[in-house]
């Protein structure tokens, strides 16, 4: 049994090595997103299968009985080497789906992109589930019975009642003598973070651009969840006006109309001021668009809000510009020109899916 478990453990390590080797491929595809659960991701690995024995009857009815000693004879009808059915040109493929925990996937991401661990800024008081069994109480499960305390109480009761005999020492505990360990919990500071995913959903942002955003958001969230025990995600969409939506709507909504980026920034800022105070939260706004904005005046308003209101309150603000056939790409140029020296601002251009790993490295590589 130990040998089997050892072989299975070795096989799991081989599989994880395969995942690490192919991680760049997964970084640029949306294959994992639909297979992600709350804590694990199912990763399909072609041409790899766990070897195993199968027991049962021989379906051909032919046995291996005989005296032996001669050359091997083929079982079944026909000569050795013959098979049934027509021949195929392609090799067989065995698909195995392997579950990998999101924490382990985040570790692989950090190693692949050489991401530093984040130094949290804000903190929030959260009741810890852990703690030490440093307390004593009269009731509890037998598994937590404190032997010394229980015996001491029984001994005291026996002596006090006059039943103690030094010649024949005997202590019989009663239920009232039992004492049980009790875990004491206390509030402890625990780093919390909030992620704002903001996206332009106007007509110029097509399906491929949104798919790139979806892939990036998945990996960003995976990494940040490995850095913070408490992570909240807020989704904001905008065209000429902004509003919060759920995750499903965020990645599939498509509308026509103009683009007013300042509407998303205003909504994000109001939520930071009202609910996610910088004293308690590590704040990460991400904005995605194809670079078109309604007017130069609105771009100036965005720059003003970033410089004076948003950047001083957040760990880092990231702008990802996805190339589009209809987008001018001007917004990134304006941000870089006006706020290029700001440490809390990171901008990245993504021409296609192949540029996703570099954009993720730019966004998460500063460890802020």
Protein model, in words:
This protein is α/β, with parallel strands linked by helices and 368 residues long. It folds into 3 domains: 1-49 and 94-114; 132-184, no CATH class; 191-364, von Willebrand factor, type A domain (Rossmann fold). It has 10 helices and 12 strands. It has a 6-stranded mixed β-sheet with strand order 9-8-7-10-11-12, with helices on both faces. A two-stranded antiparallel sheet has the order 1-2. The chain has a two-stranded antiparallel sheet with strand order 3-6. The radius of gyration is 32 Å and the shape is elongated. 24% of the residues are buried. It has helices at 2-21, 23-27, 102-113, 147-160, 207-227, 247-252, 261-274, 296-310, 330-339, 356-364; strands at residues 40-46, 95-101, 124-127, 132-137, 180-184, 187-190, 192-200, 230-238, 242-245, 282-289, 317-322, 345-350. The two termini are 47 Å apart.
